[in-house]
Every structure is written in structure tokens, then in C-alpha cells.
Amino acid sequence: MMKYSFKNDYSELAHPDVLAALAAVGDIQFEGYGLDEYTEKAARLIVKKISKPSATVHFIGGGTAANLVTISSVLRPHEAIIAPQSGHISAHETGAIEATGHKVCTVKGENGKLSVAEIEEVLKSHHDEHMVKPKMVFVSQSTEVGSIYSKAELTAISACCRENDLYLHLDGARLGTAMHSPKSDMNYQELADLVDTFYIGGTKNGALCGEAIVICNEDLTTDFRYHLKQKGGLLAKGATLGIQFLALFENQLYERLATNANAMALRLAKGFEKHGYGFLSEPQTNQIFPVLPLAMAEKLSQQYGFYQWQPISDEQMALRFVTSWATRKEVVDEFVEDLSVAK
Amino acid sequence: MMKYSFKNDYSELAHPDVLAALAAVGDIQFEGYGLDEYTEKAARLIVKKISKPSATVHFIGGGTAANLVTISSVLRPHEAIIAPQSGHISAHETGAIEATGHKVCTVKGENGKLSVAEIEEVLKSHHDEHMVKPKMVFVSQSTEVGSIYSKAELTAISACCRENDLYLHLDGARLGTAMHSPKSDMNYQELADLVDTFYIGGTKNGALCGEAIVICNEDLTTDFRYHLKQKGGLLAKGATLGIQFLALFENQLYERLATNANAMALRLAKGFEKHGYGFLSEPQTNQIFPVLPLAMAEKLSQQYGFYQWQPISDEQMALRFVTSWATRKEVVDEFVEDLSVAK
Amino acid sequence: MMKYSFKNDYSELAHPDVLAALAAVGDIQFEGYGLDEYTEKAARLIVKKISKPSATVHFIGGGTAANLVTISSVLRPHEAIIAPQSGHISAHETGAIEATGHKVCTVKGENGKLSVAEIEEVLKSHHDEHMVKPKMVFVSQSTEVGSIYSKAELTAISACCRENDLYLHLDGARLGTAMHSPKSDMNYQELADLVDTFYIGGTKNGALCGEAIVICNEDLTTDFRYHLKQKGGLLAKGATLGIQFLALFENQLYERLATNANAMALRLAKGFEKHGYGFLSEPQTNQIFPVLPLAMAEKLSQQYGFYQWQPISDEQMALRFVTSWATRKEVVDEFVEDLSVAK
Amino acid sequence: MMKYSFKNDYSELAHPDVLAALAAVGDIQFEGYGLDEYTEKAARLIVKKISKPSATVHFIGGGTAANLVTISSVLRPHEAIIAPQSGHISAHETGAIEATGHKVCTVKGENGKLSVAEIEEVLKSHHDEHMVKPKMVFVSQSTEVGSIYSKAELTAISACCRENDLYLHLDGARLGTAMHSPKSDMNYQELADLVDTFYIGGTKNGALCGEAIVICNEDLTTDFRYHLKQKGGLLAKGATLGIQFLALFENQLYERLATNANAMALRLAKGFEKHGYGFLSEPQTNQIFPVLPLAMAEKLSQQYGFYQWQPISDEQMALRFVTSWATRKEVVDEFVEDLSVAK
Predict the structure, then answer these.
(1) B8 neighbourhood in chain A, CB within 8 Å
(2) ipTM surpasses cut 0.90
């Protein structure tokens, strides 16, 4: 019997406060297409959070949509975006960016992050009209493998972008766990100052659905709602998203949920360590990659859900464990006990 | 002070049963991306509703997305879709279909509906490779102006499509009000037999968000989830949609809500008639178009929301009133009284 | 036996001077991709012709390519182009513009031309993000039906565009016959001052292939060669086009060829008139539309190629006759004689 | 003073026989859009050359256009093409394939060629709807670095494609030098049997412009002319291309020109060898990559055009020399002498 799934952070539906906020609306009538007061209030809260009065905020149903609408609204037809191989747009969005006509110039990256050197390498090799023109850079925070860019790293990438007339887009599907990780050395305002566009993920941090696209660079705001609509991202009941984000940002719920996910991952990590297991990479947020004997992984998989990530040797396997806003301490502790038994 | 808005049918958030169904899930863990049991059960209910075991059902956040994903999954690059001028894809989706590369061949239509003669006219004028190749026909049920295709009309269009190797797509953003209108002479199974693809609108009939795409033609099912994902339509928490549709179709809630919207429109229409006002077109579903003196329309607009649709003369104006699943009898009756006062 | 085809103006291969210019190059080596001296010289000649030193010129193989590269290089994804129904991009380019993602907003037009009123009508009905944003206007000179915009007409359209922040693109597949028509009241410089982009058609005026795209609005020049390349329009042997345009513009060949086409059409028109036949519209360039008894049209079609354009009555038919740079006086005179016999 | 450029094989305009064939047409009238007798005859010659009566042939102006029209006509929106990093579509077509909506899955390749193992690797890592679906494989013959696939290699790739339901497209911009290389072990028929689509390059083998797209797989022929037209590839004067290909294939001109290019490259290679220089890779066609001291390369570059390709060490540089259909023995011999002097 399956006790708990650590497969991802979107297995549980939504935090009760989010659902309660939706239920509280009752039969009030509101404006359609995100022009309602809930949505406007949620947008204002986010603008305040990042201390950037000139920023604009738009809500959309999911992460792939957030990326494709934002990126395609910015690039001209011959322009391309640079992303690490592990980036969501490179690997796991079914060619969504290419479907809007743009090449993704992929670089290897390391531990889910790309480097200034890699950006410069792409620029150097794209020098005339026989090649696409790189015009934007894509980073994720936290990344697909749970790592986070330090303030110094993101500052360097941002500086490289500005020097080279590139826009910087940050995929924040898991921004909460990044911002509220004990390893984080950046606040929301600092992050917003470094990027041109980013989105704050709701789906993976307690919402039913929804991401908040934030446009920090004023040059990129014109007509954005046209792009949202054209790509199918403008919900008639936009309030469905606005109300949820209001609930997430009104009482630090967003922070509390991300903090729980991180804390549970850390607790889990300590459990692995206690039993003498190491990690593929340092645990930083709510995705951790312990290395276990393959046989043990298989035994554990009868009761717990997780992915086999990468073979380390014939007998050792790196596994991916993901905790969520909903993961409870008791579940983690039970797992750690089962870990000791399975040994 | 505004008493009520008859501007549209997406002003109220969601029916309490829908919200209750979401709340009832609790902290159960489910599979992501619409592979959960709720979604599967909702899909089975819909398949049963249309008595078409070979049909497949996919849920998506909104109507523009439903249309663009479905249509672009079917057409090859040089193929086009025929639609009436008033069709949502022609007029109100910001070129969403063109953004996927396809021309919309618009015809005039009448009362929101296109005719076999118009389809044939397009086919006749598109005869070689210097023009796009019409390959699909777009109809809405109910239409943008509240009218519905009769069984005979839709049967004729469907026959024309099959004769001419055209697919038929039906936009059902307001399918509920069409199917459950007293004027309807078709059931779900009959409708599903006539089209290749259609969608059942949740947003405008009591859901927070969500539409159910139904693929009736088995030739068109292959790889459909790739298209959903690529266009940003595959929600990580697909259950958010599945749970809502389960609530809508489990206890005839969908039927009850549409029936309420229609009944309230009819009640409103009778009120107008009682006071001697006529209509731009016969009221059939939850959108009605009474013709009033302009001065009176302006007086009423201080307390009620509605659109001025089309001038009839210097002094007469056709107005659009829309009722919803949430419109209450008391509100309608109060309006009718106010109508008599405003005279 | 077929004596001559008046079906179109691209039936004869190329003027001997054009072919001679190609042959004269011998085995000289030149730079690829249009960076050779021939191409640069041809571009300079055209810039001089329009007296617009800031304009840039690019050569491309054909008219559909010229339109699609130019238009898609200018528009952002949500922007659209306004064109008359008869416009080449509306009717006869297989959805080439839509294939780059943009809607063509078609208006009826009259005699192949659109009006300021029609542009304003489109602007008025496209007012928010639920509709595409019109951003460019498309005209042809001469039009698909042989008519030409007068200087006053084009000036009015240009003023309307500038007032409303719209770009103006002119399809000049048959620019020669327009500029060198006795009915023309505009010179190259005046035309270039009124538009943002246009192209000068070579294919239909004596070249093997090739059109010269002229970008008059400096804001639109950036990175244009990227668009040419991406859409497959940048020939490795760009000189193939440059040499031809050099031949066309060095010795007024372009003017002489267009003048011949117009003169032959006029001669033909006079022949029709002499025998008492009228026209669907006033002959202005090398396409004329005489109205003949259907029986006579059918008799003539045994010896001459032409299109039946539009029935006027059960017995009368408007026909389309097109003359070219290569049509000879003797052929026209023989036809006029045959016309008298066929009566 | 510059004696000769070995920079590429499109520096000289066109073979005299090609120009003579164009001039010989005179003022004959022909059907437009490639429906003329010249084009049909050229197509028949090519079909005969590959002994594949069911194949269809279409002519188009250039290589990028040939690739993008063919590939985008085959793939559905979510499908992708696998290509080596050095492939023209990956590296040097300004994202032309992505601009039609499709991802290019690039693999490293070796010596310009991809391997069955690399194709299988891509297939293995693309297993569900979160990733594009690889559906086509791209090879060049000869490749961007002058190498050629042996019959065994191409047979293995073709078998892998058929096993995995992938189409195989071959870019033959330099097919002539591949087929008529002394290193080739395949004839036209054998090649055509292994691929689904390919094109025969005219531009780089003596034509003014033009490539012949050959569709070997009958499933892929439907409506191909629509795609040609929509992408701007259908020339009004299609005969311009047909006549050239007729000239190239009527008297083995195509073979003779390619053979000359190869022979000149071989003669050049022997010259380098005679003076003791080696190569980055084995010379196989008309592109060779001798390794020379950097100082010497710089001295030679004052009289000869060629590219510095890749540094081998601080002092040694691999250079790219390309010969063409027009390169003369005398020029090569003079270079080899100059090589000895420059030493």
C-alpha cells in the first residue's frame, strides 16, 4: 500500500485558505477577463512585494502558458532565447516556444543553472543573419533540479544580459521555495531588479492553478493583454486566479507554504544523512536527490512514490524526492523510520 | 446604485456545489496532468452523456484555448476553417487561429448561424493551390447572439461537411443553454453524431474555469495531449478541471444551471413583451435582444448592466441582456417592475 | 490553333537585355547572398529613382515571398493587416500571411482599391484585446483588376495611416504598368514618400524572376536580412537578382517594358471600342475587362487565351485580357481583325 | 591582388549552357507556376534518373526554402526533426524550421554526419507528451564539411527511421559532388530508395538559382503545391527553374560540373599533400580542410580567398577550401605553386 508520494509538488489540490477565499466570494458579480477588484488587489500586493511600482502583473492558468505568452510577446520572429538543457522550455514544454516560431538555443548548464560564459559562447557563435539572433535568456528559480542561483550569480547573468542587449526571463514555477529557502540570499525586490520578466508560480505552491506573470521592464508591457488573449491565456473568470493569489499573498500564506515544503525536504535530507546517505547535489529547496542502493530504492518504492533520477553505479541510484506545501512532518518521520527498516 | 448586471454569464464565480467538490478533496494525492481518477471519471460521464464510447474527452482552462488547440491539432498548414463573421474565432479571439498559422474564411451568416449555401460558396471559390484549402467548419451552439441550430440545420451542415471532406467543429461555450433550451430539438447524442469535435463550456455554466473538449472522430485523437501541452493547455493540476466537471455532470447540475439561465431569460423576455417591447431576434437561450427607446435604455443603465447592441433607429436601440446560472427570479422580477416605472 | 495568350503577363520568359546581362557576367567571382557589386549597384539605382537616400532595397525571388517577408518582419504577433478582398494577400497567396501568424482584415474595396472609410471602419470595430490590432494597410499598384490609385487617393490613405499609427505597404508586382500608365499622376518619389514599404515587381515586367523590396521607413530596416534568410528568401547567388534589376533600371528598360504593356492594352481596348464593346471598368494599365457576347468569347477562345472574368447577363460576359512587356503590335492588330470576323 | 576565391561554390554565376538554354526560349509563351513543358520535362528526367516513377518533383529557388517547405509540409505541429549540429537547418538557416513551428532536436554528429545511435538516443529521451515527438531525420549529402554518407551508413539510418516511424529527409544542396565523388558507393536510385524526401541542389552546381525537391514517399505528395505557394516558393515563371534543370540533366551537365568540382578539390588536396600538409578530415568532395601554419595561411590570404575553419594549435590552423563547377585547373596549379613559394 502506498503511504505517500514524493513524486512532485502538485499532487495535492489546494490549500484550504485558497479554497475558502474562492467560496467566500458568494454570488457577487465581478468584471470579466481579469479586470475585477480581486485581481487588481492581488496585482497590487505583488507589486508591493517586489517594491516596483512600475511593474505590471498578469495572471494565467499554468507555467507553460506563462512562459510561451511572455517570451513570444517579446521576441521578433528572428530572435531566439538561450536556455539550459534542463530548462522547462528546452525539455518539457513540447516545443511550445518553437511553436510560436522561436528557436531555443540550449546550452549545457550545470546543476540546472546556466553561466555567463555559456551565454557569451552563444553570442559569439551567432554573429550574422544566417543564424538566429539571441535576444533573451531563460533561467529558473528554483531550477528543475532544485538548485538556486545566488544573488551574485543572478547579478552576473543580469549584467551580461544588459551589456549585450538581451532580456532576462525567470521561470518561477517554484519561486516560493527559492525565495524562502534558508540558502537564499536574495529578496523579491532584488530579484525583480535583475530580470525583465518573471512569473510567480501558484500551482506548485498551494493554488488550484495559476501563475502571476510580472513584467518589470516597462518597454515590454505594451499590449500584453492581446498576447494573453491570443494564446488562450485570458480567462473569462479571471477572478478565479486573482482571488487565489490574493489569498496566497495577503497573509504570508505563499511564504508559509514554501517554507513548509523546504523544511520538509530538509527534514527528509537529514533523515537520509542520519542513515549515511549522500546526495547528487546539495539540497537547497524542496527537491532533493539522495543516492541509495538500487535494491533499497526498489523496496521503498512499494510504499512511497519517487523517481529514479540517474544511475550512479551498477548498484547506486540517485533518486528524486519532492516535498510540497502539504507534506506533513509525520509523513516524513514515518518515511525516515521506514528507511531505517528497509536498510 | 447598480442592482444587477445582465452583461454576461461569467460575472458570478462558481456554483457552491462546484466549490464544495473542490473543497471535499482534502489532502488526497492524485496524478498530475489530468491523469487522475476525478478527471477520468468526469470524462467517462461525458462519454456516457453523448453515448459515444469511442469519443475522447480532454479538459482545458478556457474557450479560446479549447478552440485553438483543437483546430490547430487537426489542420495541416495550408488548410483553413470556415466560420461566420460573428463566430468567436472570427471576431473575438485576437487572431488566435491565425496565430497557429491558419486562415479563418469568414462568411456573413445570419442570426449567428452559417448556412450550407455559404459553405458551398467558399468551397467553390477555393479551387486550387493559390488559395487556402478549406478543411473544417466552425459553428457555435448556442451562437454568439443566443440563437440555436435546429437538428435539421445542423444535420444539413454536417452532411455538407462529410460530402466535401470537411471536419465540423462546434464551439459549445454555451452548450448548456442550447441543449436545455425549450426551443432545442436535439439531444447530446444526436449532436455528437453530427460533429467531429466540440467542447462543452464550463466557465459560462457554473464552473470556476474549464471546458471539456470532446473528440468524436477517432481519426483526430492521436497525440492530442501533445497539442494540449504545447499550447499551454495541460494543467499540472488537471484535477482542478476534472473535479469541477464531475460536479457539473454527476447530479444534472449542468442541466439545472443551464435551465435556470434559460428560464430567467424567458421570464425577462416575457416582462419586456408584457410592456409591449419586441426583439431583434426570437429569444431562444440566455441571451436576448429587446428593442427599447434609447432614452429608456439610458435610464435603466443607471441600475442595471447590459450592452447597447445595435441601433434600430434614431430613437430605438436593440440591447443585449444575458442571464446566468446564478440569476435569481427576484432580480428579474424587480427589473421588470423597474421597467414599468422607467417607461 | 492558339495564336496568342492574353491570360497574364508572365507567360514570356525574360527580355533579351536581361538575359544578356546575366550572360555578360562570365566567370567573374562575386560575394554571395546579395552582397555583390551588381546587387549594390541595382539597389543604388532604385534608391536614386525614388530620391530617398535613407531607403534600403532587398531583392527576393517572387511576389508572395516579398509580401510575407516584409509584412511579417514588421508586425508583432497580435497585429494585423487590412487589405481589400481582391488583394493578393487576401485571395491568392494560400494564407501566406496567416501562416506567419497574422490575420488579414479584409474589406470589400471597390475596383480593386480600398478606401479611407473602410480603414476607419476596421479601426472602429477593433478596439480592445479581444480582437487583433490593425497595424498595417495593404494596397496594390496597379491592383489585381488593373486599376490604379490616384495621387490624391494614395495620399489620403497614407495620411489616414499616419494619423492612426498604421504602416502602409504597397504591393508593386505590377508597379511598372501603374507608374508608366498615361493615367498615372504620381512619380516614384511621390509614391515612396507615401508608403512605409513597397516592392517593385520584376517578374511581371521582363525579369526571369525577382522583386525589389524597398523599405522607406527607417524604423523598419533593422535586421531585415534575418527575415529574408529565415523565410527562405535570401538567395546564395543574390547576384542573379541584382544583375537583372540592374539591367531593368540602367537604361529605362523597366519603363519601356511597362510602357509597351500599357500601350498594347490601350491598342486592344481601342479595338474593342471600335467594334462597339464596352468595359467592366475603365482600362488603366495592362489588364482590361471588355464585355462581349458569351458566344463570341467562346469562339475567340479557340485562337486566343484569356479568362472569363464575370458574367454580366445570361448572354454577356466580362473577359480579362492581359498584355505584357513582350506583346507585339502585330499580334494585337491580328486579334482586332479576328474580333471583327468573329462578330 | 586577389587571384581566386576558394570561399565557396556559389561565387560564379551560372554555366554557359544553362544561360544558353534560358536564352534559347525566346518569346515562346508558357504556362505559369511550373506547369509548363520545360518544367515537366525536367521533372521527368529527374524521375528517370532515380528510377522511381512514383516520385514527384517540384522546383524552388533556394536551399533554405527547399528545406522549410518540405519539412513543414510533413510534420504536424508537435512533431520535430532530428539533425546534427552542423546541419544547415540547425546552424545556418536563421531558425527557418522553428519559424514554421517545429523544434530541431540537434545531436552532436561526427564529421558532419549523424549516427543511428544518436537517433536512438533522441527517441529514448522523448517518450511522452511533455516533449516534442521526433518524426523526421535530417541528413546532408555531401555534408556541411564535405564528407559523404556511405551506402551502408545511409542504409542503416534509413532502416532505423523506418523501424521507428520516422521520415528521412536529405539536404542535397551539394548532392552532385556527393554522387559523383570517387568516394561514393551509391547511385541516385539507391539513394532515392532510402529517403522519403530530398532535394537536388542546382545553385551550387552551375545554375543561377534553383533546387529540385523530390518526394519519394507517395504519402507525402498530397497538396504539396499548396505548401510551395504558401511559403513563397512557387515562382510565377516556374519555367525559369525548369529550363535550368533541363539543361543540367539533359546532357550529363550536372554530373560533369560536380565531377569538375571534385577533381579540382582533389588536385588541390594533392598539392597540399605534396608539400607535406595534412587534413582535418579526409577530402571526399569539393570542400577540403588542409591544416597549415597560421602564418602561411595569412600570407596566402592576400591572394586567395578561403576561411580559417578551426585552430589546431597556437600555430596550426585548419582552413576550408571549396572548389566549384567553374574552378579551372590552371587556377589550382597556380595556387599550388604559390603554396610552395609561401612556405
Answers:
(1) 32, 236
(2) yes
What's the pLDDT at A343?
A: 72
- Residue B71: other Cβ atoms inside 10 A: 27
Do residue B223 and residue D78 have CB atoms under 8 angstroms apart?
yes
Rounded Cα gap, residues B203 and A139, in angstroms = 34
Q: What is the pLDDT of residue B340?
A: 86
Can you tell me the distance from the alpha carbon of A88 to that of C329, in angstroms, rounded to the nearest whole number? Answer: 68
Segment C135-152 shows an average pLDDT of 97
DSSP string, B233-269: ---TTTHHHHHHHHHHHHSSHHHHHHHHHHHHHHHHH
List the end-to-end C-alpha distance of chain C, in Å, as a whole number: 19
Chain D residues in contact with C28 (beta carbon < 8 A): 12-13
Task: List C residues 142-161 in contact with D (Cβ-Cβ < 8 A).
Answer: none
Is residue D1's pLDDT more than 80? no
D129 reaches A (C-beta below 8 A): yes
Residue C53 distance to chain B (closest CA, Å)? 36
Q: Are D246 and D21 in contact (CB under 8 A)?
A: yes
Report whether B271 contacts B336 (CB < 8 A): yes
Using left for φ > 0, alpha for ψ between -120 and 50, and beta otherwise, residue A237 falls in beta
Total residues belonging to chain D: 343
- Going B325 to B329 to B330 to B336, the CA torsion angle's sign is positive
Residues A117-127: what's their mean pLDDT?
Answer: 97
* CB contact set of C342 (below 8 Å; sequence gap of 6+): C296, C299, C300
pLDDT tens string A194-216: 999 999 999 999 999 999 999 99
Q: Quote the percentage of chain C above a pLDDT of 70.
A: 100
Which chain A residues touch C226 with a CB distance below 8 Å? 78, 129, 132-133
The Cα D286–Cα D275 span in angstroms is 20
Which chain A residues have a beta carbon less than 8 Å from that of B65? 232-233
Question: Hey, of B76, B92, B98, B144, which one would you mutate to test binding to chain C, going by the most C CBs within 10 A of its CB?
Answer: B98
Using CB atoms, which chains have 3+ pairs under 8 A with A? B, C, D
pLDDT mean across residues, chain D: 97
Question: How many CB pairs (< 8 A) connect C and D?
Answer: 162
Nine-digit cell string for D307: 576561411
**A92, A94, A125: which to substitute to probe chain D, counting the most D Cβ within 10 Å?**
A94
Name the A residues in 310-329 with CB < 8 Å from any B CB: 326
Local confidence band at A1 (pLDDT 50, 70, 90 cut-offs): confident
What are residue A92's phi and psi, to 5 degrees?
-130, 30
C-alpha cell at B101: 498559422
CB contact under 8 A, C78 and A227: yes
Angle at A306 between CA A300 and CA A312, to 5 degrees: 85
A277 Cα to chain B: minimum distance (Å): 27
Interface residue D83 vs chain A (CB under 8 A):
no
Q: Considering only alpha carbons, which residue of chain C is nearest residue D95?
A: C230
* Per-residue pLDDT tens over the stretch D285-335: 999 999 999 999 999 999 999 999 999 999 999 999 999 999 999 999 999
Q: Tell whether A227 lies on the interface with C, counting CB pairs under 8 A.
A: yes
3-state secondary structure of B242: helix
Q: Amino acid letter at B281? A: S
What's the gap between Cα B22 and its chain centre? 24
Q: What is the pLDDT of residue C342?
A: 74
**In 3-state terms, chain A is what percent helix, strand and coil (to 5)?**
40, 20, 40
The answer to whether the CB atoms of B78 and D223 lie below 8 A apart is yes
pLDDT digits (tens, 9 = 90+) for B83-140: 999 999 998 999 999 999 999 999 999 999 999 999 999 999 999 999 999 999 999 9
The pLDDT assigned to D340 comes to 86
* DSSP secondary structure letter of residue A110: B
Q: Does residue A314 surpass a pLDDT of 80?
A: yes
